[in-house]
Design a protein that fits this description.
By secondary structure, the chain is mostly beta strands. The chain contains three helices and twelve strands, in the order E-E-E-E-H-H-H-E-E-E-E-E-E-E-E. Strands 5, 6, 9, 10 and 11 form a five-stranded antiparallel β-sheet that branches.
């Protein structure tokens, strides 16, 4: 059961909504609260209370289902239960199967988080573009892209400086693979001729 105001807010500002005198109805908007908690689907129930000057019919209550975020719903399904999905091993930055890939990245790349597998990791290459060599990063994901996370492709020439610059999506990408997935390719913004040191990465974060 969802609780107010921890799990949702109401446009009325209060858990009690008053129907003005002389009116037959009132409108209230329920907005789910974004959080990092794995809770599964929860419900919120609105109930008409008895009072003076009106009679209640049979339909005095209505229930709204509040769905969990896409990544948290995925965790419940992938890890087998709500209890498992709430464990520290299922945290976004944790690595349930010990394959070196964070759970949030497994979600973003449509990988199996309970089976060690690095086959879905992005690949990095050097490509000749406009007469210059650039680092490129390529990966596949579901189409449409899973909601609730941002895919941040970034590059740098100095790992010690910790300054990363957004990469550029290559022309023609994302490319539809025709099987419910798409391929994304991005390139560095700075050429990497010869043995010049350049680095490129994919970072996943919640929206």
């Amino acid at each position: 059961m969802a609780t107010f105001p921890a799990d949702y807010s109401l446009s009325s500002g209060s858990a009690v909504v008053t129907i003005p005198a002389g009116q037959a109805s009132a409108t209230v908007t329920l907005s789910p609260t974004t959080d990092l908690l794995v809770e599964g689907t929860e419900s919120a129930t609105f109930t008409l209370a008895p009072g003076f000057g009106y009679a209640l019919g049979s339909g005095v209550a209505g229930t709204i289902q509040i769905q969990d975020s896409p990544i948290d719903a995925w965790k419940i399904a992938a890890f087998g239960s709500l209890q498992n999905a709430q464990s520290p091993r299922a945290a976004d930055a944790a690595d349930w199967d010990g394959d070196g890939i964070a759970n949030s990245v497994e979600f973003a790349l449509d990988a199996a988080p309970t089976t060690p597998d690095t086959g879905r990791l992005p690949t990095v290459n050097r490509e000749l573009i406009g007469g210059s060599e650039y680092l490129t990063l390529t990966f596949s994901r579901k189409k449409p892209a899973p909601a609730g996370v941002n895919y941040l492709i970034e590059s740098t020439g100095d790992l010690t400086a910790a300054v990363w610059t957004p990469a550029v999506i290559a022309p023609g990408f994302p490319a539809d693979n025709g099987n419910g997935t798409e391929t994304v390719r991005a390139r560095d913004t700075v050429p990497a001729p010869g043995r010049a040191a350049r680095f490129i990465r994919l970072r996943v974060e919640r929206q």
